[in-house]
Amino acid sequence: DDSLPNIKTTFRKLDQTLEATIRKEDRHHPVRLKDYSPWLTEFSANKLNVELEIPGQYDGQSKPLPQYHVKISGFSPEVTVMSSNKKPIKITILGMDTKEYPFLIKFGEDIRQDQRIEQLFGLMNHIFSVDMICSNRRFEIMTYQVIPLTSALGMIQWKSNTESLDAFLGRSANKTYQQDLSKSRNDYHLWISRPRLNQGDAYGLAAQEYHADKVIPKFRELANRFPKHILRQALWDLSINTENFIALKNNFLKTYATMCVCHWILGIGDRHLCNSKICLNSGKVLGIDFGHAFGTGTQILPIPELVPVRLTPHITALMEPFGERGQFKVYMVHCMRALRDNYRILLATMNVFIQEPSFDWLEHSRLLDEENDTPEATWYPQIKIEQARRKLQGEGSTRIMVEELEANNTLKYKDAYVNLVKNIRTVGRFEEMNNLSVEEQIDCLIDHSTDENLLGRMYAGWTPWM
């Protein structure tokens, strides 16, 4: 048929157009707001004679005064489609005060968990503010506003002038940093993968068969591909003088130590290089995306996370000459002591997870117990809040993680992973992993997080050697 070549040509052009559009979005090129919402594009508070507040101005800390809240004037005509899996959209709201307020619109996810975690962070910041030691040292965990609109749609405050840890490390590296990083992940994947095995089974078999004598040299070889002081150099490049560098470094270590403690209490996982951001003005660290919280990174994922917080070689190199046992540990001890002294108020606030479990929590309870999949099931949140209580009363990180691994009913090589965690060096120092002092608990947490035999078995996308 003569029309067949024309049809093929048409489809080829359509395919090329679609591919070009996808590439354009992946490069974060802006697109028009009217492509998504013509009504928002034409919105004008003056023309419509309406007053709409910019979201996120209610913090629950004091009586609201809406008469002083900033109102929406309009919307920027351009938006940015992000490159992550569900393509969230960054929009900019124009305020009556002539300022711009950027937000990230996420759809297809229940962000109520993120909102509640941010509220818990706010409570932790209040605890730090009334604790004399933490207040004098100005401890805080950086937060942002999360506004759920439905169970599958929400808005997240966009923190301007921040950069992911991944991009920040690339500042001081050579031009091939991203290619080198990708190559290291591919090499690690080839080293751990097995023919005709899926990723979960390949990692599980490695947990069972690969001895530490094989894992640790490979881990160190990957880490040595990148300059040891790459993070220090990135902070130095951001500084205008030595005094500024010392301030940026101190801000980074203080906020990172605070974040590590708070994240571990809430069991927050999935701390890959893009889920931590650095404020370019101050050097402070901001954690984002809490889809895996309360231990689900270990208990749910087919390749379980084996370390409680991210203390990888290039981060701990910034802590020299005293290392992670120096000032960084002191920061963690102060934060943990303040939270443990106020554990009752934290646990009371966490009860909202039991009273109103999010979709993710109900789904996790269904996966972990097929016989108890009713919406009224509250056993899963109760267990998670109980684990948080034990952490706040001196339980060690290894015992909690062993419990989470043993509860992972879909994990084929469960025993191998459990043995790895049970046999790290910290277990010999603390025979009983409960009722630890604050200093012992932080020692356990640091030992656990820096264990090279565990880091060398983490998922390649987590990039544990960086």
TrEMBL record:
Pfam families attached to this UniProt entry: FATC, PI3_PI4_kinase
GO biological process: double-strand break repair; intrinsic apoptotic signaling pathway in response to DNA damage; telomere maintenance
Residue intervals of the PI3K/PI4K catalytic domain: 75-412
FATC domain sequence ranges: 434-466
InterPro entries xrefs: DDR_Repair_Kinase, DNA-PK_dom, FATC_dom, Kinase-like_dom_sf, PI3/4_kinase_cat_dom, PI3/4_kinase_cat_sf, PI3/4_kinase_CS
Entry EC no(s): 2.7.11.1
SMART domains in the record: FATC (SM01343), PI3Kc (SM00146)
Molecular function terms, GO-annotated: ATP binding; DNA-dependent protein kinase activity
Alphabetical UniProt keywords: ATP-binding, DNA damage, DNA repair, Kinase, Nucleotide-binding, Nucleus, Phosphoprotein, Serine/threonine-protein kinase, Transferase
A Gene Ontology term for the protein's cellular component: nucleolus
SUPFAM superfamilies referenced in this protein's UniProt entry, alphabetically: Protein kinase-like (PK-like)
Annotated localization: Nucleus, Nucleolus
PANTHER family: ATAXIA TELANGIECTASIA MUTATED ATM -RELATED, DNA-DEPENDENT PROTEIN KINASE CATALYTIC SUBUNIT
Protein name, UniProt field: DNA-dependent protein kinase catalytic subunit
Organism: Callosobruchus maculatus
